[in-house]
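In response to the reviewer comment on reproducibility (Comment 2.3), we provide here a single inverse folding case reported in full, input and output, so that an independent group could reproduce the run without further information from us. The structure tokens appear first.
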């Protein structure tokens, strides 16, 4: 029998009713707040896409101003309701960013991203799939797999025998290539490391190659002395004859030529190295050919551009960044390799706390790649590709390349000299006023960035030619946007 009196029973019922009401109110508030926050995010997405040309591409973003704007809003002493928090973060990102998704951002490879990719990243955050083990995220793993197979075929690789995985970016993919090449060439490397080798492996790059290889040589223990800088031709591509001479000299001096890095679309000038010639040299010298196609790999999807990367199909491994010319949010790199067994030897590990393999035909990526815990990086590329379809996706890439052609013509007509030789949409130019010292490229860039109508940069090509660099990074860029760029360059070149 209950020992509670009627008064006590009534009190308990009151407390339980009060608790239920509080829980209901809190749940309602949270649900309403979440709905409001999602509405704000949706409006921000729509407003940015529809009105981005009304925003300056960049502003005078001094650290003291930005820090004051952030610190005046947040100190973590009190909770901030989600709708208010969302509104403030949207405002901060809108007001204190270089808008790399702007159609008149002609800078580094930071693209405009499609709505499908934004939704994909939100879904990844929601479901938080862990791709380390196939059995934990079967759908996410298979969506990435089908995407990588499609792109491997575009490169000219056999999808059935190629190993491929998504990476955090180009550095991880390039790092993977060097580690797998070392493992493939030197049987003792996986256990003894560099100390177990009785030789000094060398890696061949140019001054135009990505600087990630400096970090990679440090991380692998090779040291930066392993990097051999091959001279470039007058068009800033790797000189194949000079490469052969350097390889022969290094071999004579007791070094072991290991890996040639051919670049398909250099960062500074969009230059494509002679990949066919490099493949022939690699084969004759028993070397590994890695093609860093972080940006230019997209040309493989476009029939008109495919010849620009001819020879990439002969590479041992390829880096390709989806967050560049494939226009998905950062970061999303990819690593493709012909040598599955060497990949396994380089990265395989087992741990009792990890789930057992689901089946022999599946791959647990923690055992086959650099990462352990793995985000579903590839879903944003899958959704972007699936929504548009392969043909429309290729047309989008081709259109950007044609915008590059149009920009070259407009700048030449305005008296500028194009100094890089590429069909990819990176345009590097100089002017008599620059070459005669009347104005510097830095002064032009500073003037243009201060006005905020477009964003460009300057570069030094081949260690000898300083130029203005403009890259068509947005698939929304139009001829009218190119006209603004040319007008801004003319204004900055001859200020009144």
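Designed residues, in position order:
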């Amino acid at each position: 029998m209950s020992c509670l009196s009627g008064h006590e029973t009534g009190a308990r019922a009151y407390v339980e009713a009060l608790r239920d009401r509080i829980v209901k109110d809190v749940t309602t508030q949270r649900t309403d707040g979440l709905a409001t926050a999602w509405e704000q995010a949706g409006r921000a997405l729509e407003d940015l896409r529809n009105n981005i040309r009304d925003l300056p591409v960049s502003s005078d973003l001094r650290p003291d101003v930005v820090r004051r704007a952030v610190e005046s809003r947040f100190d973590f002493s009190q909770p901030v309701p989600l709708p208010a928090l969302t509104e403030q973060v949207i405002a901060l990102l809108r007001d204190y960013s270089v808008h790399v998704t702007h159609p008149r951002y002609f800078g580094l490879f930071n693209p405009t991203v499609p709505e499908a990719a934004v939704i994909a990243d939100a879904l990844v955050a929601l479901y938080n799939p862990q791709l380390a083990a196939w059995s934990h995220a079967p759908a996410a793993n298979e969506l990435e797999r089908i995407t990588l197979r499609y792109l491997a075929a575009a490169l000219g690789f056999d999808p059935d025998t190629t190993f491929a995985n998504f990476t955090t970016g180009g550095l991880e993919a390039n790092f993977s290539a060097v580690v797998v090449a070392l493992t493939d060439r030197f049987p003792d490397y996986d256990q003894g490391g560099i100390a177990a080798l009785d030789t000094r492996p060398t890696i061949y790059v140019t001054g135009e190659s990505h600087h990630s290889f400096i970090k990679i040589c440090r991380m692998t223990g090779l040291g930066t002395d392993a990097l051999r800088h091959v001279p470039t031709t007058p068009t800033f591509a790797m000189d194949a004859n000079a490469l052969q001479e350097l390889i022969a000299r290094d071999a004579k001096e007791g070094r072991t030529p290991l890996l040639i890095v051919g670049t398909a679309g250099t960062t500074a000038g969009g230059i494509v190295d002679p990949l066919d010639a490099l493949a022939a040299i690699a084969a004759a010298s028993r070397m590994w050919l890695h093609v860093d196609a972080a940006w230019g790999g997209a040309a493989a999807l476009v029939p008109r551009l495919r010849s620009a990367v001819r020879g990439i199909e002969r590479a041992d491994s390829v880096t390709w960044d989806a967050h560049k010319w494939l226009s998905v949010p950062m970061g999303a790199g990819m690593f493709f390799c012909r040598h599955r067994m060497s990949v396994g030897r380089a990265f395989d590990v087992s741990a009792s706390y990890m789930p057992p393999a689901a089946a022999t035909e599946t791959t647990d990526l923690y055992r086959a790649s650099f990462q352990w815990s793995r985000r579903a990086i590839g879903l944003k590329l899958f959704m972007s590709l699936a929504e548009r379809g392969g043909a429309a996706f290729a047309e989008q890439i081709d259109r950007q390349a044609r915008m590059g052609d149009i920009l070259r013509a407009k700048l030449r007509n305005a008296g500028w000299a194009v100094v890089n030789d590429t069909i990819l949409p990176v345009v590097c130019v100089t002017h008599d006023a620059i070459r005669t010292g009347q104005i510097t490229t830095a002064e032009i860039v500073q003037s243009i960035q201060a006005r905020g109508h477009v964003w460009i940069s300057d570069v030094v090509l081949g260690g000898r030619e300083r130029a203005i660099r403009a890259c068509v990074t947005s698939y929304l860029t139009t001829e009218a946007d190119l006209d603004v760029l040319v007008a801004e360059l003319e204004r900055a070149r001859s200020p009144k």
